[in-house]
Write a structure and sequence with these properties.
The protein has a domain of about 180 residues: Serine Threonine Protein Phosphatase 5, Tetratricopeptide repeat, CATH 1.25.40.10. By secondary structure, the chain is mostly helical. It has twelve helices and no strands. Helix 5 runs antiparallel to helix 6, helix 6 runs parallel beside helix 8 and helix 10 packs parallel to helix 12.
């Protein structure tokens, strides 16, 4: 999910603004050709990394921020550089490196005031790697876990607000995967396997856009399994919660044609 939105970027830059302004005041005018291991004073090195980030060279910026820590591990600048490195890797779309850098920052500075942003950046980096529902959804689960951690740890922050919105999208994505598998099983005549997937959507993703179809599919598969009373039950739930939808109209038609007069168990 490519979501380099203004919201995400504004949150990121708001968090790091104080750090980068300090860097801008402290450095000289020298500009290294690359990230070769040439000893430099910490202010100049940090300022060069910031300049590279400003010039839309985030991969090089990340490498230079890493050099700040490598060359000056005990400097206060090293702590700032760790988080800036994580952010630079994120901007460069090197999400695994961003996660590793943010996790390293948290392992060294767990109580730092910027810890909420580091957790948020981890969640974003997993979120950006979510692929379409036809692929394995391991990274989607990781995104959900990381975003929930942001909400749990820092509920009253802007990070939690954005994470909550993304959690809804991630859950919809996971529900879509369950529906895809369920429809495949249904097409194959594997009715019980299909029902398990559709029921999972109803039980665990009931607030997503896929819930109405899941109830319809449960109506459909119940009829295929020869248990019309269950079909009537699912159709009734569908009608109570999603009246007027196309899925209720279809479920109602199925029940009228194949389970007329049956009472839900």
């Amino acid at each position: 999910m490519k979501t380099h939105s203004r919201t995400v970027r504004s949150i990121a830059f708001a968090t790091l603004a104080a750090t980068t302004m300090l860097a801008a005041c402290g450095g000289g005018n020298s500009r290294p050709r690359d990230t070769a291991y040439v000893a430099r004073d910490v202010e100049t090195l940090y300022s060069e990394a910031k300049a590279r980030l400003d010039r839309n060279q985030p991969a090089l910026a990340a490498a230079l921020f890493d050099e700040v820590e490598r060359q000056h591990p005990y400097s206060p600048w090293a702590r700032r550089a760790q988080l800036m490195s994580a952010f630079s890797y994120y901007v460069a779309a090197d999400y695994n490196q961003s996660i590793q850098a943010a996790q390293r920052f948290l392992s060294i500075h767990p109580g730092n005031k910027d810890a909420p942003y580091a957790f948020y950046l981890i969640g974003l980096s997993y979120y950006e790697q979510i692929s379409d529902v036809q692929r394995d959804q391991k990274v989607t689960e990781q995104a959900l876990t990381a975003l929930r951690e942001v909400v749990r740890r820092f509920p009253n922050t802007e990070y939690a607000s954005d994470a909550s919105l993304k959690i809804d999208l991630v859950q919809d994505h996971l529900a879509g995967k369950e529906m895809e598998i369920g429809r495949y099983y249904e097409r194959s005549g594997r009715w019980i396997a299909a029902q398990i997937r559709f029921q999972n959507v109803v039980d665990n993703y009931q607030t997503t856009s896929h819930a109405p179809e899941a109830l319809y599919r449960l109506t459909e598969t119940s009829l295929a399994l020869g248990i019309p009373e269950e079909a009537v039950k699912y159709a009734a739930v569908l009608g109570a919660n999603y009246p007027g939808t196309e899925w209720y109209e279809k479920a109602y038609g199925l029940v009228e044609d194949h389970a007329s007069g049956v009472t839900a168990s």
